[in-house]
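Hi team,

As requested, here is the filled-out complex form for the flavin-adenine dinucleotide run. I kept the field names the same as last time so the parser does not choke. Let me know if anything looks off before we queue the next batch.

— J.
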Amino acid sequence: MIRIRDNPDRKVGIYFYTRNTYLSFVSDYDIIIVGGGLAGLTAAIHLSKENYKVLVFEKKAYPHHKVCGEYVSNEIIPYLNSLGVSVLDTGAVQINNLELSTAAGKVVKTNLPLGGVGISRYNFDNLLYMKAVKNGVKFLFESVIAIDYIKDCFLVTTENNSSYTSRNTIGAYGKRSSLDKRLNRNFIKQKSGWLGVKAHYQFDEFPENKVSLHNFNGGYGGLSKTETGAVNFCYLASYKSFQKQKNVRNFNEKIIAKNPFLNNFLEKATPVFDEPLTIAQISFEQKKSVENHIIMCGDTAGLIHPLCGNGMAMAIHSAKIAAERIHDYLKSKNGNRNHLEKSYEKEWDKTFRKRLWMGRQLQTLLLNEKMSDLALRAVTTSPYLLRNLIKQTHGKPIIC
Ligand SMILES: Cc1cc2nc3c(=O)[nH]c(=O)nc-3n(C[C@H](O)[C@H](O)[C@H](O)COP(=O)(O)OP(=O)(O)OC[C@H]3O[C@@H](n4cnc5c(N)ncnc54)[C@H](O)[C@@H]3O)c2cc1C
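And here is what came back:
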């Protein structure tokens, strides 16, 4: 039987009640963060800087590669600097030009209003992890299988059947997890028709300051350089078009190579990875930013279409909002959880809802062959229009 009580030194905890004795079976944390990607790691660094006891669960040891376009908007650079994380010190390349092409090879070029940097997730996540460890954050490399909210306290259970309690829990476990099923989230009940593929290549002629986005039948892919000098090629494809080709090699040869820019790249570039990385079941459905009292951050709260190149900045920005709201809640004597949740939801909506909507419209446009030709013709005659569209999917730099 599980009973909840305040223990004598006033730390909130969950205790087994057996034979009239309360047995503590857990450690106490101010905040448990489930998932150590960009959102989880940023929240961990921010909250540990405020001297809270933070525990992060991550299922994979660092460093590791991830399916991602690896272009990060400059929006979050000042904020990361304020946390003591300097992305540019890793050799990340500065990117300020964009090239867009249709499946048939019609092209438009413009400069990026805000710009960004190219950095591999292998190094980016690891950089944040090392900073979090330095700040005293505890990491456990285990998969979380359940998060339960019991009497104003969270019970987090891992695959090894260990349980831990916390006063607050942040869900930062990415696009999709068995936890979403357990939480009975709406988006998980719907089929998702997208998959992502990513690999690094040696391709010296690709300019450092450019990100290029190329359309093909059933999807689009981005090229940009990373701090290692390798070019990252990452694409999103619909199952419908991928299924017919059965594997990545066939899909690259038969579909992707029809775009002349991507054909040139695939012919000349040398793969660095043995095999490309793939992820399936990518969902762009709307999600709630608070679920069963868990504050959701990054992709766990909502994923923007990758063509916007803004998912990483949104993950980091949402972690900032969550950390600030949780700090306000914990430092006030009579912290009101309802107020914490409502103020996080409100700020999340205000900051991201419009970007997500615009991302959905742009993706629909880009994936419709006729419409994308027309749209590209319109933006070729007006780079102002293109820059304005990009602005609509990005935030302003976070000044700290
Ligand atoms: C094809 C594609 C291309 C993209 N390109 C770009 C781009 O160029 N620029 C950009 O800004 N964004 C891009 N994005 C979006 C970006 O990758 C995500 O928005 C970003 O990674 C979100 O970070 P996160 O911390 O929310 O999630 P993640 O980085 O996915 O981190 C979640 C972490 O949780 C861990 N985890 C999951 N379940 C559990 C569990 N049960 N227990 C413990 N740990 C768990 C995972 O191992 C993972 O490390 C792209 C996305 C896709 C699909």
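Two things worth flagging: Residues 66 and 311 are 13 Å apart (CA to CA). The longest helix spans residues 337-366.

Thanks,
J.
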